[in-house]
Amino acid sequence: MNVQTFTPLLLRLLVANVVAVIVWIAASPLAQAHPHAWIDLRSTVKQDEQGRVSALVMDWTFGLYYSAFILEDILKQGTPSPENLAKLLNETASENLKNLREYDYFTVVKADDEKQTLGDVAEFKTEIRDQRLWMRFEIPLPTPIDPKAHKITYAVFDPTYYIEILYAEKGPLVTFENTNTCQAEIIAPTPPTEVIGLAASLDQTQNGGDTLGTYFAETVALTCP
Questions:
Q1: Helix, strand, coil percentages in the chain from 3-state DSSP, rounded to 5
Q2: Which InterPro entries does UniProt cross-reference here (predicted)?
Q3: pTM for this one?
Q4: How far is it, in rounded angstroms, from Cα 205 to Cα 47?
């Protein structure tokens, strides 16, 4: 479902349904523990004509909580037309990406365990899909990396673990553009028991530090024979 299919009534029903879920979540003891927001992830590896990894394309599907927060904020300005809704969603995505730049868009790319510099996002799309906010954006690598010559891994995570970012339950989860020879392995995290306990003890006003999210991050390892 995209923004063009919304009528004012459907938009308000969407927000009402999502808010009901938020109330249910807030009443749960789990609401007192990190994380407090969720993103389902898919990613695409782009390669140039030489087969070097040149960019990563991220597909984020936000959880009901954040989706409702954004839509409810939009509705405070009145019920928008489909065109204005698309415009407002794009403005929100642009602002989010601007803020995420400071944190490399929650993305860490490594070649032979050395962290790589990431470029600025210039291309993105956003819409409502199945009652949830969806965003796709492309992160360029200023210096493309040869996956045959280097061990390439990448992970997407919020350093504070306030937001949990995990690959979606159903595939395709990691795809490749411009190649059919590469493979990707998603390596599950194995956080220590004490770190799990720390995350469970934090409420919305507390911060577990800028390294907590690393323990819960899924890592993608590329293999290109």
A1: 35, 30, 35
A2: DUF1007
A3: 0.85
A4: 41
Q: List, in sequence order, every residue forming a beta bridge with 154; answer none if it has no partner.
A: 109, 220
Residue by residue, DSSP assigns 139-185 as EEEEEEE-TTTS-EEEEE--TTSSEEEEE-SSS--EEEES-SS-EEE
**Residue 126 one-letter amino acid:** T
Beta strands 37-47; 174-177: pairing state: parallel
Give the list of residues 6+ apart from residue 70 with CB closer than 8 angstroms, or none.
Answer: 62, 89, 92, 133
Burial of 185 (0-12, 13-18, 19+ CB in 10 A): exposed
Beta-carbon neighbour count of residue 100 at 10 Å?
Answer: 16
Q: What is the pLDDT of residues 4-51, one digit of tens each?
A: 444 444 455 455 554 444 444 444 444 456 688 899 999 999 999 999
In angstroms and rounded to an integer, the radius of gyration of the C-alpha atoms of the chain is 19
What is the DSSP-derived secondary structure letter of residue 86? H
Q: Which residues contact 190 (CB under 8 A, 6 or more apart)?
A: none
Are 164 and 35 in contact, with CB atoms under 8 Å apart?
A: yes
From CA 128, how far away is CA 4, in angstroms rounded? 9
In the three-class reduction of DSSP (H, G, I as helix; E, B as strand; rest coil), residue 147 is classed as coil
State the distance between the two ends of the chain, measured CA to CA, in whole angstroms.
Answer: 39
147 within 8 A of 185, measured Cβ to Cβ: no
